[in-house]
Every structure is written in structure tokens, then in C-alpha cells.
Amino acid sequence: MRAPTSKPKPENLLVNLVCNVALPTAILSWGSGARALGPKGGLLVALAFPIGYGIHDFVRRRRFNFISFIGFVSVLVSGGFGLLQLDGFWFAVKDGALPALIGVAVLASMRAKEPLVHEMLYNPQVIDVERVEAALAARDAQGAFARLMDTAGLLIAAALLVSAGLNYFFARLIIRSPAGTEAFNAELAKMHWVSLLGLSLPSMGMMMYALWRMLKGLQALTGLTLDQILHQAGAAPAAVVLAGAASTPTVEPGPAAAETMVPPEQGKN
Q1: pTM for the complete prediction?
Q2: CA distance 229 to 249
Q3: 108, part of any domain
């Protein structure tokens, strides 16, 4: 067993969320105008945040940061689609594919050495993993714990797949205008708020239910209280961050960026 001093510092999930989601989205939305960074420059700067954070976190903790990977893929696809001026169908595919891929990854990793559901729910920043595992070993409850985490993984995957279907449905319903038009940008803005305020609620609720089921199960298996199981009071699990990824909104280009994306002859009409 490692000495406590040899453990890497716990990750700050608020900084994680800001660097991998909030700042890249803000840069793509408002910093990509012709008078600012430009569409290509905005995409490159936005990509730098999840890449830089992921490298920094790997050097510091020697762990692959799954949230940085999600942020990188989301920014790359959203910004790339904007540069290519693809029509609404492809934005709908993107909005549905990202949470679906994460859900499939959760299912595929369930028999891996470190399943993704452990990263999302059984997180050492939130759970006192050493105390819980010692209690499980004392009660010979490792098998029951594995089944509990399998159930949690299935709930998380279901939440992501439901979100994928909702994202695709509403993107196809809302985004109908040709790319590069004023109406198209207005529809992207509407989809942004629908995703942010509406579609995140079902996935967040399902993930919080999975977390609640896991915590209740841990109490029953270990005999520990909730205060003894939780490692840091007030720390949000990575599942909260992934609930945002489950309803990742289509990024709305800034006004100046939209002007540069409209062909000259179209802008005259």
C-alpha cells in the first residue's frame, strides 16, 4: 500500500469543468468572430484548453482524463462542422452521437480493469475508497459490490442513450434552415438553450438516481454511514460533469463569425 504522501493531489472538478467545457464553449460562441480570433483561430484556441488540461492532469496524476477527451471531441466536432457549413442533419447526428458513444463506452468498459462507471461515480474525490474497500473485504462483499457497480453502469449508459435520442430528435426538429444563414444561427441558439435547460434534466436525474442507488448499496454492504463513505463533503462526482456532456449543446457561432460564414452572394439577398 502506498504511503499517503505518495498519492497525487485530488483533481479539482470545478477547474476540470471550466477548462474542458465552459471556456471552450465560450470561445467558440463569442471569440470566433472576424474581429477576434476568426473561426479557425477560435477553434484552435478552444481545443487548446481540453488538450492542455488533459496533459497537465496526466503529468500530475498519471491518469487519463476522460472529461478532457469528451471536451476535445465535442469542441473539434462542433467547430469543424461550423467551418464546413454542414446542414442541420449533421448537427443532429453530432448531438446524438456524442452521448451515445459515451454510453457505449461505459457498457464496453464494464469488464475492464477500471470501468468508466468507477470514474463517474466511485470517484476517490467523493468516495473514501480505501475505507469502503476495507469494509467490503472485511465482510467478504466484493462480489456484491461488483454487481452493484454493474447496475450503476447500466443506469448511466441508459441515461446517456436516452439523452442521445432526445438530442437527435430535437436537433432535427429545430435546425431546419441552410447553414450560414441568419435563421440557421438563430436555430442553433434555440437548440443551445433547449439542450442546456431541458435535455440535461432527464440525464442528470437518471445519473443522480444511479449515484443514490450506489451510495445506498454501499451503506448496506459495508455497514458504514453516508458521512463515512463520502470522502469530501460538497464535492461533485464526475457524473455531474458527464450529464452536461450527455446533452452537449450545438455551439452557436458568434455574430461576426456568422457573417464570415455566409457566402458574399448570399449575404446580399
Answers
A1: 0.66
A2: 34
A3: yes
pLDDT score at 198: 64
- What DSSP assignment string belongs to 96-165? HHHHHHHHHHHHHTTTSSS-HHHHHTS-TTTB-HHHHHHHHHHTT-HHHHHHHHHHHHHHHHHHHHHHHH
Domain that holds residue 135: 11-257
- Give the integer Cα–Cα distance in Å for 29 and 208: 29
CB atoms within 10 A of CB 4: 7
Amino acid making up residue 23? L
- Residues 21-79 have pLDDT tens digits of 777 777 766 655 545 666 677 677 777 888 888 888 777 767 666 666 776 777 777 66
The reply to whether 32 falls in a domain is: yes
Phi, psi of 109 (to 5 degrees): -90, 0
In a domain, 187, yes or no: yes
Domain-embedded: residue 161: yes
Distance in angstroms between the alpha carbons of the first and the last residue of the chain? 70
pLDDT digits (tens, 9 = 90+) for 208-250: 888 899 999 999 999 999 889 986 544 455 555 555 555 554 5
CB-CB contact of 158 with 216 (8 Å):
no
Strand partners, 230: 127
Domain count for the chain, please give it: 1
Contact 192, 236 (CB under 8 A): no
For 179, residues 6+ apart whose C-beta sits below 8 A from its C-beta are: 85, 86, 87, 88, 261
